[in-house]
Protein: Histidine ammonia-lyase
Amino acid sequence: MPSVVLHSTPPTAAEVLAVARGNVLVELADDAVAAMDASRRVIDELAAAPEPVYGVSTGFGALAVRSIAPELRTRLQRNIVRSHAAGLGPRVEREVVRALMFLRLKTLASGHTGVRAEVAHAMAALLNAGITPVVHEHGSLGCSGDLAPLAHCALTLLGEGQAEGRDGELHSAAELLDRHGIAPVELREKEGLALLNGTDGMLGMLLLACEDLGRLLTSADVTAALTLEALLGTEQVLAPELHAVRPHPGQAASAANMRRVLAGSGLTGHHQDSAPRVQDAYSVRCAPQVAGAGRDTLAHARAVAERELAAAVDNPVVVDGRVSSNGNFHGAPVGYVLDFLAIAVADLASMAERRTDRLLDRHRSHGLPPFLADDPGVDSGLMIAQYTQAALVSDLKRLAQPASVDSIPSSAMQEDHVSMGWSAARKLRTALTLLTRVLGIEFYAATRAIELRATAELRPAPATRAVLAAARGGGLEGPGADRFLAPELAVAEHLVADGSLVRAAESVTGPLA
Structure:
């Protein structure tokens, strides 16, 4: 089975995804073990000294004023895990928990936390055994790290609480550790704190979201091209020289994608025939500008994620042989881009819904039957599919409200400003699911419209024909009398979500951006 070797230097985003989604094994490199051993010696020296050091020989947060005697420190570290494992609500997805654990392990391996190598080896063993701690939806304020989610993971290392096994069933953590020959960890100075104090949950969800949104942006370019074709629009607005005079890279990439999908179409350019129009509507003509802005937003988010991947987020940290308090655990950098992406997602969906509505409105569809119905009046066609799409877009607009502008003081005002980055990440994951459904409905409507429009003389583009073949082969039926619509909309969503839509277009165009 493939593996990711974790060094004292940061992993790549691809390696995080491989562990989170691909279940690859994790190994600790010798340089990572050496870095951990070196930082641990610093912690051991401080633990033996009479001066109090935060996280080593004191309480935590607002309770840091108390110095903790050596005989109580193991209990102190165990207690912070137990008390902080205070999440509530639905369980967080397995891929998110695996990403969170791997990213915390990455920070341990950096040699800046002072944690013993055996703790890191135990966390790697959990990942490799397919043991996934139960982490709950609510509990993180995104400052001092994702405390409650990370505490639930640390609790499993102690052999306490519940976790999911490789079989997908819930078991006691003690049972799962015993089954896989993993000894419960007994924490020493600073180790409980170091297992909890990071932005790993929100960063893991950002990395997962960047991967998913990249695919959805390409899907949106394909569905926009299909709709332009179905509306007999003009592809002239996609000419590279037009986008060169406004040199946003994302815009140029989206226009190029649409241009390649539409190459060889017999349907485009007929906007002057039955119902002459000088220009296509904004939702069609400006598709590259909106999707392109989303691409550039995504590029910024990826840059932030790369910087955060290179970080060792903990407090205090071991740097140059000393232990220093800091504020690097604050989630603002990650929270901001998570919110920024949610705005881009909502706007992309809003434009897709407007294109779908145009396909269904006989006054604006340039000759297509009302609602793409077989016998309008007897049949309603896709009328209510657009209602569903509109409801999804409305939800997306609410999800675009930034979480990071909110802050609720905690820990007796010691932690008086928090990022809410975890909340931003959770709503972005929901938003991406809704965007997938919105694009699925546009995909379904556009393919039906093209089949209604196409004739022997007006043939769709070769890439469009490949998409139509994939749609029909994937279980998406063509035009006809009304039938139970929900299952077909679910098929369309699936074809977008699993990449089938993009792969079908790429079978003709080659790789799209």
